[in-house]
Amino acid sequence: MKRSNKEQLIGYLLILPAVLLVLIFLVYPFLNSFYMSFHKWPIFGDPKFVGLKYYIKLWNDDNFWNALYFTLLYTITVTPMLFAVALPLTLLCNIRAKGSTIFRSVYFFPVVLSFAVSAYVWLWLYNESYGVIIHTLKNLNLMSDDFNIWLTRNSSLIAVNIMITWKFFGISMIIMLAGLQSISDDFYEASKLMGATRLQTILNITLPLIKTSIALALILSIAGSMQAYEPFLILTQGGPANSTKSLVMHIVDTGLEYFKLGPAAAMGTVLMILLLVITMIQLYFFRKN
Amino acid sequence: MKKVLKYFLIISTIIPVISFSSQTFSRELVVWSRYEPSQSLVDAFNAKMEADGNELRAVNTVLAGDMITKFTAALAAGERVDVVALDLIHVPYYASIGALEDMTDFLKGKDYYNNLNAAMLHLGTINGEHYAAPNNLDISGIAYNKDMLPNPPTTWAEMTSLCEDFASEGKLLMGWPSKSFGGMIFTWAPWAYAEGGVHTGLVNADGSVANVNHPSMVKAFNHFTNMQEIGCVPKNVAAWDWPDAQDAFLRGDMAIWGGGNFVVAMQKDYPDINMGFFSHFSEDGSRKSGFIGGDLVSIPVTTGDKDGAVEFINYMLSEEGQSVYINKNGGVPIRSDLFDDPGLTDDHRVFLNGGQTGHVPYSVVYNELMDPWGAVVQEIFAGADVESSLNSANEKLQAIIDEGPE
Lengths: 289, 406
Hints:
The structure holds two protein chains of two kinds.
Chain A: H1 2-36, E1 39-40, E2 48-49, H2 53-59, H3 62-93, H4 100-112, H5 115-125, H6 132-139, H7 153-180, H8 185-193, H9 198-209, H10 211-226, H11 230-236, H12 247-257, H13 261-288
Antiparallel strand pairs in A: 1-2
Helix pairs in contact in A: 1-13, 3-7, 3-10, 3-12, 4-7, 5-11, 7-10, 10-13, 12-13
Chain B: H1 2-21, E1 27-33, H2 38-51, E2 56-62, H3 67-77, E3 83-87, H4 91-96, H5 104-108, H6 118-123, E4 125-126, E5 129-130, E6 133-145, H7 156-168, E7 172-175, H8 181-187, H9 190-196, H10 215-230, H11 242-250, E8 254-260, H12 262-266, E9 275-278, E10 280-281, E11 288-289, E12 292-298, H13 306-317, H14 319-327, H15 346-356, H16 366-381, H17 386-403
Helix pairs in contact in B: 7-10, 8-16, 9-10, 16-17
């Protein structure tokens, strides 16, 4: 008994640093932000309780709804692109052949690059005057000479989606690869014996068995997309005419540019609740199936 | 081994503490600046203090793009900042929330008080009390390529005529950074200010009424969208950012570019571009204008050494301090009595003259106003109707003004 208590205490002590970090950098800021959302919070002076004023104001705030709509549009368009690239490459990287490990590293490389560096590289690739991509497309007569990719919301969204897909498909790939490699070979041997084609094997054995990995990759991808900030800050600056301003961009502007901390905190809380609901729906769907 | 490790850990903990405490000066001023060139002024001040046997030393921190966020966080946390040089358009907000010390007596006691840039001084003034002093002046104006354009325009009609000539030859006359709200208010809006006068084109004199739909702004947008239609301005200028416009001019592909007095110093880096300069002008060319940009210097209420801060600012505004801006940084002085400094060239004087009738909007919610301003600029140059877009933007601006800061 005494030894068990001692072991428990050692266990608690070992996790204490991580718990403290979570409490200080996650729990406390969230609780503080939640508290702020019910107050008028000036830079100088005492906060003043305003109740649900900022939540009610959001209902009629066009900027908030436009930013939320665009963020959902971005999430819905970039997620399939990510998986359309990640899933086939995951299946390819799972092949036990010489050099497959090297390919896994190469595909994961964009993930470890700094986001700002990646964004500025793609900004140059897309540049109207100097960009390799735009220059090539114009030379192939696939684009008019006066085309600028940042001129419309749709072209801006496509440009950002391509960059994000290149940057982050590696994470989804690694997660699904881990799931793939936990599948026993017995399943594949059995399917071979039953005469299943490669496609039938993938659809009826591989994908169902990596369902939890796909679920995890999907949850992370959607949560990350809903909180998108840097791509739109660096590549589009929310333009043209605020049409690509994401919700987090709007929250950051409200809080750190306009110094309206109460309204920004309220929007942050709404975003968090939205993410929780979306995640719970996803988990319910995957568990049910 | 355990003993050796124990003593090593103890010594390695003590030494940094001792060495840190031995490096502090007896009287240090915490100075926060926006740009790297401010270091030359701080160095000159410290050299003077050392020569005078004064123990006061300024320690400069350059914050660049993070300036506003970090300064606001420092204020909220009560962190000591003795002197801060802020982008002047943010000063009304900080003065309105009581973040800055009163400098009225200090400034009015100076014999050069009436020579200080009035537009800059206005931004740091509430009810006649001064909370900031002009520090570093950045006036906008127009740079042009003399080889592409031997005779620059002097009226809007001449601009249109040149536009037709350039378009017929497939050349660019001008372009602007529509995607950059700050770039547009600095380098493009003064066309409207020159036409309509000061306090038009965004907000009125005290920032209480929005007027981005002022007739002068409508006129200016109509004029320049017409040039876009003619073809001497890129059709996709709505997507141009600051580097797009700057690069097109510095490559020699575009004849006219909106910039500031900082472009005068850039000439040595681009010897192939034979540059000339002129101020923004009204439709008939009779009135000039420019955006009065730059920094105001203030003493935050979190200062730990107000006397030292005043001494530093006194040096900044002195002839010696302003000479550092002119001769080391290639800048222009904020005192009109120093306009004859031999370090200033005729090119500098083009901007200084434009600055005499220049303008800078006063608003305590400036940052938030830039959102609808930036959006309406891009909408109009992407093809939206000028008047209805400006009217809609004006409603948004007024709603922001009416709500006020937090």
